[in-house]
Each structure stands twice: as structure tokens, then as C-alpha cells.
Design brief:
The chain has 255 residues and is of the alpha/beta class. The protein is 35% helix and 26% strand. The radius of gyration is 19 Å and the shape is globular.
Length: 255
């Protein structure tokens, strides 16, 4: 889905808090040299963070274009193995892992099968860690100006995407406790949150928006006008958008 914008995605999508990575590795307690499993590696943003801490990572990514960028980004880490496959059809050849993590990708896995496949890939008491970035729009001073741009240029675009400045949905949309309670394969659920910020120039933020499905599906003249309006709004506010972010980490243990 994101393959055609893999390079733009890699250059402009945010990474993840380093403290989150440290916490996940501490909780998983996987022995040095024993591989951990990543589902939906994308361009390797999370892969690099785990590998930089010495973890051996077997990363699965279905998009050839995204996987190619991930291989480049992980070239300094020989302990990373990247496999082009979707999780649902990947042959794990009987292997089990102490940690399965998924950065910004768990919601793309078939909801009817993801926990069954995750449990099969994990050792008993193995850790499942899924995490997502969300913009904390309520704390952004430029939000009203961006809302005005969206109202003028794309008034019919539903404010469903997390980067839409009129999105009023709660940051914690995933009800992890209820989700885990409904499956038999996992228990001991836990949720952690990490607050941080990231700075974007006007051009960088426009390029970030250009990776979003709802923006890519706009008619080109409309898309160009929206991105131009966003750039202008950020320039008018000093040229930098400081985006408050919250990363939600959802944890559970294999039964």
C-alpha cells in the first residue's frame, strides 16, 4: 500500500521513543543473540532502534519497496534478517520467539487471525508488543490555522486520519484490555504511554502528509492546493511545526 511512497515515508514518518525500545527489551528478557520477531517492518524505523541495542531481529515486511529501504537502513546491522512476506502467510518453520513487536502495523494484520498467528510464533509467556504514534493535536498552537486550510480546500474530507487537524478522536482509540480479554491466546495485558515532540519544517510536514492514504487519493489539483496551504500556514507561524506526540505501547503475554 505504501510501497510507491517508500522513500518519502522513510524520510518523513516519525521514529519512536528510545525509552520505549529499552522498556520492551527489558520486559522481554531475550538472551543475547536470540532473534526477536518484527511484524510489519516498513522502512526499518523500529528495526534500526532494536538492532542498535544489539538485538538480533527477524523482520517481516510485505512490500518489496519498503523492504528495500529497510535493508539499506539496516545495512550496518548484520544481525537483522528481513523477509518479504505478509505475516499471515509467512512460514515460521516451527520457530518460536520470546518477543514479537509491531510498530505502527499491528492494525494491518487480519484481526480474525493475528492473535492466533502471534501466539504460534511466541514461546509460552513470550511478549507481544504493539505500538503506535499519534499526534497530540490538542497541544499544538498551529492547529486552528491548519483547520482553516482543510476547511477551505478539502471541506468534504472526513477528519478520520490522525493527522487531520480537525480529528477529535481520543488518542487512545485501541481498547487493548478489552481486545486481549476477548482472545484466549494472551493475558497479562498492559498499556504504557510516551509523550514527546518532533519538529517539522513546512516542506517536511507537507511531504509527511503526502504519504497518507487519504491525501494520496485526492485529485492532484486538490492535493497540491492542500499541501501548498499547509506549507504556507506553517511558514506564517515561524516555519516550524512542533508536533506533540504520544506513543501508545500495548503489551500482552502468550498463555
Amino acid at each position: 500500500m505504501f510501497g510507491e511512497v517508500a522513500e518519502i515515508y522513510d524520510a518523513n514518518r516519525p521514529s519512536y521513543p528510545e525509552q520505549l525500545v529499552d522498556d520492551v527489551l527489558e520486559l522481554a528478557q531475550v538472551e543475547d543473540g536470540v532473534p526477536i520477531l518484527e511484524v510489519g517492518a516498513g522502512t526499518g524505523k523500529a528495526t534500526v532502534l532494536f538492532a542498535a541495542r544489539g538485538a538480533s531481529v527477524l523482520a517481516i515486511e510485505p512490500s518489496p519497496e519498503m523492504a528495500a529501504v529497510a535493508r539499506r537502513n539496516c545495512s550496518a546491522y548484520p544481525q537483522v534478517e528481513l523477509i518479504e512476506s505478509d505475516f499471515e502467510h509467512w512460514d515460521r518453520a516451527g520457530r518460536e520467539f520470546g518477543l514479537l513487536y509491531s510498530a505502527q502495523a499491528w492494525h494491518w494484520i487480519d484481526p480474525e487471525r493475528r492473535y492466533t498467528y502471534a501466539r504460534a510464533a511466541l514461546q509460552p509467556s513470550g511478549l507481544l508488543a504493539a505500538f503506535w504514534n499519534r499526534p497530540a493535536w490538542g497541544e499544538s498552537s498551529i492547529r486552528d490555522s491548519l483547520r482553516a486550510v482543510y476547511r477551505e480546500v478539502v471541506p468534504d474530507l472526513p477528519p478520520a486520519g490522525p493527522l487531520h487537524p480537525a480529528n477529535e478522536a481520543p488518542l487512545d482509540r485501541e481498547d487493548w484490555d478489552a481486545e486481549i480479554a476477548a482472545v484466549s491466546e494472551f493475558d497479562r495485558q498492559e498499556v504504557r504511554r510516551y509523550d514527546w515532540t518532533i519538529d517539522y519544517s513546512a516542506d517536511e510536514f507537507a511531504r509527511l502528509l503526502a504519504t497518507l492514504s487519504e491525501i494520496r487519493l485526492l485529485d492532484p489539483p486538490c492535493r497540491d492546493a492542500l499541501l501548498a496551504g499547509v506549507r504556507h500556514a506553517i511558514v506564517e507561524h515561524g516555519g516550524t511545526l512542533t508536533m506533540p506526540m504520544r506513543t501508545k505501547l500495548c503489551l500482552a503475554r502468550a498463555v
